[in-house]
Amino acid sequence: MAKLVECIPNFSEGQRPEVIQQILAVIEGVEGVKLLDHSSDQSHNRSVVTFVGEPQAVKTAAFLAAEKAKALINMEEHQGEHPRMGATDVIPFVPIAGVTMEECVELARELGREIGEKLQIPVYLYEAAATRPERKSLPNVRKGEFEGMKESIHLPERQPDFGPARVHPTAGATAVGARPPLIAYNINLSTSDVNIAKAIAKAIRGSSGGYPSIKALGVMLEDRNVAQVTINVCNFREVPLHRVFEAVKTEASRYGVIITGSEIVGLVPMEALLDAAGFYLRLENFQRGQVLETRLSE
Amino acid sequence: MAKLVECIPNFSEGQRPEVIQQILAVIEGVEGVKLLDHSSDQSHNRSVVTFVGEPQAVKTAAFLAAEKAKALINMEEHQGEHPRMGATDVIPFVPIAGVTMEECVELARELGREIGEKLQIPVYLYEAAATRPERKSLPNVRKGEFEGMKESIHLPERQPDFGPARVHPTAGATAVGARPPLIAYNINLSTSDVNIAKAIAKAIRGSSGGYPSIKALGVMLEDRNVAQVTINVCNFREVPLHRVFEAVKTEASRYGVIITGSEIVGLVPMEALLDAAGFYLRLENFQRGQVLETRLSE
């Protein structure tokens, strides 16, 4: 299978479709890049775009998109509920197939340097690409947002990794990074007691002592009268889907509750589901290349 | 995802590599066709070729391969342990993605007509493409083999579906059909008693009253001193992998035996593993298109 990297840039524009269309057009214009999804949020005034392709093609598309966003978006005029610091706010690279996290970190460095030098926008490397521990966290990087960073960017601890140490007057600043694929995974319980879902979420999530790469909340599906554990699996190679499922099943059993179903929201890498099949079928010596469909793009 | 059909023709030549190379060359020469595998057996004097692609491209490649085999293989000179009736002995089409069994049956009919008319080779439609119930079974179609069929082909019940009612003097006769993907699946037990594996195989296979689409035997893995149930899952949409696994697990428990592992031999359609993941994770509303990799060939 070919090398495959996913890129999910976020742009500070969610109200003018014609702006997003122009950004999508430059991405789609790059040979070897496939646009998978895009969505805009009016109140966040923000758009999220998902595309995949070979590493260099994906980097080229990300640069052209940042260049176009710089030309079309003025942060002085931007208002929205979501925290943001730049016209192109954040660009994560995600290894999907045949690519290591280290290669995505290198890709983030190359793109960061290019945006910094050619577009004169300050760039911060974050998550797996971070050059300082506190910059692994995107909220730390974005602290103060566009307006506040104008005052703080000259401080030593706020020096960008690439580009000038001043916020670009219209395009702001951009975070570029690398992270594992995120899987949005929800598990429904045989109860309408949301407190049970909350207790289970607390047991498994990193913020309360569970798996560091798991985020979880207990919520109520009002229309179905069902309590749900809604989960972000932030590193499925570290904590795979089956381990999340089995942990929720075990915690639920303490209340006499069972799992009635689960749901994957949006896209999921094939490997995450092959891993689950392999776990439950106790597969030995299984190679990804045995999946017929993977042979086609070799 | 694009329409994807697999084709696994068998040729009556397993000793002259140069003949197989010429057949492979015409297959690989067809735009949109991907050669996945080929293997030759000396004592069977037979070769099996696997390729995939869009339906019409796959049909074209199958016709060109049959034409080449007719030119290079003389059944009057062919000897081998495996039953056979033609230079191109059998051509099954298998629906893999975005294609129904009915479309593969239609593809088999089109190819059968073309081989019958243009190559003047008698063609029998078999399995899902069969025009008579007794022709669903390939051994019935091949009864008497190349030599015997010269005498029997004029009988009303032996009339071919396409082509002349006489065995071609050098190329013999060909069976063309459609069938589901076959998955070779082995399950290892926590015992060295092969009789337990045999009893479990008997419980699940169609020939002794189990699932009609399951073939199974109990065998001994001498090098590991492990008893194994070796299985052909002939229709995974009818009897999926998880049902086979759970049936073996249940039968084994009666002997105090557990499943220590399982193994998929060769290729497997992605859908078979997604189905297993979906079963064990109790996935609701899962769409194949949520698998990131399936979006790439859209």
What is the element layout, followed by pairings?
Two copies of one chain form a homodimer.
Chain A: E1 4-7, E2 10-11, H1 17-28, E3 33-41, E4 46-53, H2 55-72, E5 88-97, H3 101-119, E6 123-127, H4 138-141, H5 145-152, E7 174-178, E8 183-189, H6 194-204, E9 214-221, E10 226-233, H7 241-253, E11 259-265, H8 270-280
Parallel strand pairs in A: 5-7, 6-7
Antiparallel strand pairs in A: 1-4, 1-5, 2-4, 2-5, 3-4, 8-10, 8-11, 9-10
Q: Which fold name is given in CATH as the topology of the largest domain in chain A?
A: Formiminotransferase-cyclodeaminase, Chain B, domain 1
CATH architecture of the largest domain in chain A: 2-Layer Sandwich
> Which bin fits the share of residues in helices of chain A?
25-40%
Beta strand count of chain A: 11
Oligomer: homodimer
Assess the beta-strand content of chain A as a share of residues: 15-25%
**Chain pair with largest interface:** A-B, 45 and 46 residues
| SS element count, helices of chain A | 8
What distance separates the N and C termini of chain A?
4 Å
Q: Major sheet of chain A: size, sense and barrel closure?
A: 7 strands, mixed
CATH fourth-tier homologous superfamily of the largest domain in chain A:
Formiminotransferase, N-terminal subdomain
Tell me the radius of gyration of chain A: 21 Å
Shape of chain A: globular
Question: How many individual domains of chain A?
Answer: 2
- The succession of helices and strands of chain A, N to C, reads EEHEEHEHEHHEEHEEHEH
